[in-house]
Design a protein that fits this description.
Chain B: Its cofactor is FAD. The structure holds three protein chains of three kinds. In chain A, 23% of the residues lie in helices and 25% in strands. Chain A has two helices and four strands. The radius of gyration of chain A is 11 Å and the shape is globular. Helix content of chain B is 20%, strand content 31%. In chain B, strands 3-2-1-7-21-20 form a six-stranded mixed β-sheet, with helices on one face. The termini of chain B are far apart. Classes of the chains: A alpha+beta, B alpha/beta, C alpha+beta. The interface between A and C is medium-sized, with 17 and 19 residues.
Chain lengths: 65, 426, 417
């Protein structure tokens, strides 16, 4: 899967970090780390993260879906 | 075919973020004809921001940041091929492999490349790096992983600051050098740059501000250090050159377009202009390479190297080429972010020409604040350090050109008048 | 001119089951001054744009609680020596939902620091088991109360376990939480009787929390209260006892009073849209979409109150300094300028920047818990309830206008799978 986050929009609400803890993390107060190519098997988790983002900053492409 | 007829062939030159989002917008606007994307790297479009951050720390593989895309199979990718010349009369491109590619509409999104080190022979040394492409980042990552004794970063702009912060995260000694009085001084001014500098210094970055490198010292094809203009020699076993970017416009030479190393000029729709200032309605430009008149800044032409701008302007340009009616002029507020270690610097608006700055929220001593820039009594830019949730309120003030300073109180500093200071631009 | 009685109508219990037509009328003016009986009236923001902007406006304060004023007892020592000290302490150590930066940020960061992904992940798994147990207990029932049988006990157990409140003490929290949650209802802030009850309840729960904290210091366990009581915060200082008490009370009350509405409103909405209930049954992976849409369509917290520190020009009006402000989140969530066909419940809509958890600095701390508790509950209900039918529509509602949700939600079933 392909993931990108618009970090202009990101305000570090960290909802993605709880939804998909293996792929998203906040360092310090608001520096988002994300894995841009998560395993296809975890698409439900990634989709949860995408939907939970309060500012809708996460974009996902799932070639299998 | 005339500019107002329905196009059948659209070519996008440049396979980066802007090229990709432009191509998507072209398809999303209903264009079903032939769509070709030309890119001089061998890769499908990938995201660059991770390259100077998590790729260097090793947390993300260099080849992992391919961008998500809505494009299907109905796109022709011409990769590892550059555009060589543009013949607008015949509406065709000549490519680096000698082929010609005809178009009805053309989107120019060739972006920038890293500005090379001033001495070409020194730039070729094996341990001298710049960061623009995925391959650049992969080789720098491999070098940093081998625990060099000291990294020298030349240029304390955003990329230089990000790389220096990565080095400290990796516990590598790093020296950040720039002729400016403080990091980010060209973008943010010395007043705010000095606060940013203190944060980096606090994390162990050896800051050499107001210094210039005359030459890189070298032996056996490897740099061993840098000789400063004042004669001091700094030893280093890795050198990162972060001197900003040069726009990829050489291939437009001879096309009659108004283009130079600062970008290709566009009108307020996004169509490119020829040397006499007339728009060519079959060609639009987007992203780092497009120099366009920004209504927020008195119609002054700017070329913005911002991620969000590449997306927004490419979407605009794509729809424009397909013939959609769009609000004129294109006027998205410039904004960017930079992750320096675990500190986030975000900005809205442009600081150019600022004559005043004020800390309006937070406190630089807490490494967390919002700075607002004014010019002739109007808000023109806001910079937030670890204060992302406050930025939209100030971005609104910038977008509406509100009086500076616009907000007389804030929840964290009731009844405190902000101190108006000189932003410290050279 | 806008109808100035609309806020009164929102608060009127007669409109509890369906306040949305009133919200639509309020939205005709993005920001309007409403006559709610207070001397200067109350300003209401009802459009998505105005609410979003005010949520993130540095001139808008969350310090809306009036000064603490415990009722007098008639004992002069209590009334003239102890009461002023206690009132002062209460005022200086508000829960952070009623505080501004920098104090708000420090307290919130301390909580977030304990709200680790591991702890939350653990409670996610625990929620699934709790839902299974709660539904198993009703296996042979032909009638099911979504509130008493699932939507209330689930979040309560989760928040108590997360904080390390002993299970046997939990029942007494029910009444405390119900009482203290009235602090989010605007009228209760000015109603003397409610304020007196709230201060008594606060003192009782504070005493309980104080002794629980002492216990966590002596015998730390792997729970959030132990962490907050014993570990340094990200800013390097330990939280003082008064802030710790206020903070943990806030989290416990919020855990008792909000998610119950999300789950109950969720089941109610799905029963009113049986095709969506069926789709969720067939594909539980739809749950996150359903829940985000529920947070838009029927948010558990319908509005929040604020006050202004300076005059604010917005949407053609000027809100004066010191004004009371209601941010009508549930109205913004149905704003056609932000959502296509906003009155339609549509989990497949794209890009929902809903205001169900508020926004900016005070964005709901418990949002991740609410999301997975609702996911556990709604997917299990969709799967297990056989032929569910609403017994009463609309169901009876709890009194709150801000924390709005059914008191009971009776569902007739043919059994539980």
């Amino acid at each position: 899967m392909r993931v990108s986050v618009d970090l202009n929009l990101c305000q570090a609400y960290a909802q993605c970090c709880y939804a998909a803890p293996r792929y998203f993390r906040i360092d310090g107060r608001e520096a988002l780390f994300y894995d841009p190519s998560p395993a296809a098997a975890d698409r439900v988790e990634i989709e949860r993260a995408r939907l939970a983002c309060p500012v809708q900053a996460i974009r996902v492409q799932d070639p299998e879906a | 075919m005339p500019a107002d007829a329905r196009p059948e062939r659209i070519v996008v030159v440049g396979a980066g973020l802007a090229g990709l989002r432009g191509a998507e917008a072209i398809r999303a606007a209903g264009f079903r004809g032939s769509l070709t994307i030309v890119g001089n790297e061998p890769h499908r479009p990938y995201d660059r921001p991770p390259l100077s951050k998590h790729v260097l720390t090793g947390q993300v593989a260099a080849d992992a940041s391919q961008l998500p895309s809505s494009l299907g199979d109905d796109v022709t990718w011409r990769l590892s091929i550059g555009a060589e010349t543009l013949d607008r009369e015949a509406r065709r491109l000549r490519l680096s492999n000698g082929e010609t590619l005809p178009y009805d509409r053309l989107l120019i999104a060739t972006g920038t490349r890293a500005r090379p080190w001033i001495h070409a022979d020194e730039a070729k040394l094996r341990n001298v790096f710049s960061i623009r492409s995925r391959d650049d980042a992969a080789s720098l990552r491999a070098t940093l992983a081998a625990k060099p004794k000291r990294v020298l970063v030349i240029g304390a702009g955003f990329i230089g600051c990000e790389v220096a912060a990565v080095c400290r995260e990796l516990d590598l000694p790093v020296c950040l050098i720039d002729s400016s009085p403080s990091p980010l001084a060209r973008a943010l001014g010395h007043t705010i740059g000095a606060y940013i500098g203190e944060i980096h210094r606090g994390r162990g970055v050896d800051l050499r501000m107001g210094s210039e490198v005359a030459h890189l010292e070298h032996a056996d094809g490897r740099a061993t250090g840098a000789r400063l203009k004042d004669g001091e020699v700094l030893s280093a076993d890795v050198v990162v050159v972060a001197l900003g970017a040069v726009r990829n416009t050489e291939w437009m030479t001879g096309s009659g377009l108004s283009a130079d190393s600062g970008g290709v000029d566009c009108d307020d729709h996004g169509h490119v202009l020829d040397e006499s200032g007339q728009p060519d309605r079959s060609i639009a430009a987007a992203g780092d390479v497009a120099r366009f008149p920004h209504p927020l800044y008195g119609g002054r032409r700017v070329a913005l190297e911002h991620w969000g701008h590449a997306v927004a302007q490419a979407e605009h340009a794509g729809r424009l080429l397909v013939g959609e009616d769009l609000p004129v002029p294109y006027a998205a507020l410039p904004n960017f972010w930079s992750i320096q270690g675990d500190m986030v610097v975000k900005s809205a608006g442009l600081t150019d020409g600022a004559d005043a700055v004020a800390i309006v929220q937070g406190d630089p001593a807490d490494r967390r604040f919002v700075a607002l820039y004014g010019r002739a009594g109007r808000c023109i830019a806001a910079v937030a350090v670890d204060s992302a949730r406050w930025l939209p309120a100030y971005a609104d003030k910038v977008a509406s050109g509100a009086p500076f300073p616009p907000i007389d109180t804030a929840t964290d500093r009731p009844l405190r008048e902000p101190e108006i200071r000189d932003p410290g631009f050279a | 001119m806008a109808d100035a009685t609309l806020l009164k109508q929102v608060k009127d219990f007669a409109n509890r089951a369906n306040p949305y037509p009133i919200y639509a009328r309020l939205r005709q003016n993005p920001v309007s001054l409403q006559d709610d009986g207070s001397p200067d009236g109350t300003w209401v923001a009802a459009s998505h744009g105005a609410i979003s902007s005010l949520l993130g406006d540095p001139r808008v304060s969350s310090q809306t609680l009036p000064p603490a004023d415990r009722p007098r007892t008639g004992n002069p020592i209590t009334d003239f020596l102890i009461k002023p000290i206690k009132d002062r302490i209460t005022d200086h150590h508000r829960p952070f939902i009623f505080r501004d930066p920098p104090d708000h940020d420090a307290l919130r960061a301390a909580v977030m620091n304990q709200f680790t992904r591991e702890r939350v992940q653990g409670m996610r798994e625990r929620s699934d088991r709790l839902v299974a147990e709660l539904l198993d207990a009703k296996r042979d029932a032909r009638r099911f109360d979504a509130v008493d049988d699932l939507a209330y006990p689930l979040p309560v157990t989760v928040i108590c376990e997360l904080f390390g409140v002993p299970r046997e003490d939990e029942p007494q929290f029910h009444d405390w939480a119900t009482q203290l949650a009235t602090a989010l209802e605007p009228d209760s802030l000015t109603d003397d009787d409610t304020r007196a009850k709230n201060s008594r309840t606060f003192d009782t729960i504070a005493e309980y929390m104080g002794s629980l904290i002492k216990d966590k210091r002596r015998h730390p366990k792997d729970d959030m209260l132990s962490g907050l009581a014993n570990e340094a915060t990200p800013t390097g200082v330990k939280m003082g006892d008064y802030d710790l008490i206020a903070t943990s009370i806030l989290m416990l009350v919020a855990g008792h009073e909000t998610t119950v509405n999300l789950i109950t409103n969720g089941l109610l909405t799905l029963l009113r849209h049986p095709d969506e209930l069926e789709k969720l049954r067939a594909d539980p992976a739809r749950a996150p979409r359903v829940i985000e849409e529920l947070l838009r369509y029927e948010p558990p917290v319908q509005f929040r109150t604020r006050t202004t520190l300076s005059p604010i020009d917005i949407a053609g009006v000027t809100i004066p300094e010191g004004a009371d402000l209601v941010l009508l989140l549930a109205a913004g969530n149905r704003d056609a300028n932000a959502f296509d066909d906003p009155e339609r419940f549509d989990p497949d809509r794209k890009g929902t920047r809903h205001l169900g958890f508020g926004g900016s600095l005070h964005y709901c701390v418990g949002a991740p818990l609410a999301r997975f508790e609702a996911e556990a509950a709604l997917t299990a209900l969709a799967r297990r309830l056989k032929n569910p039918r609403l017994v009463e529509d609309p169901p009876p509602y709890r009194p709150g206008a801000a924390l709005r949700g059914p008191e009971h939600l009776l569902v007739a079933i043919d059994g539980m799978a």
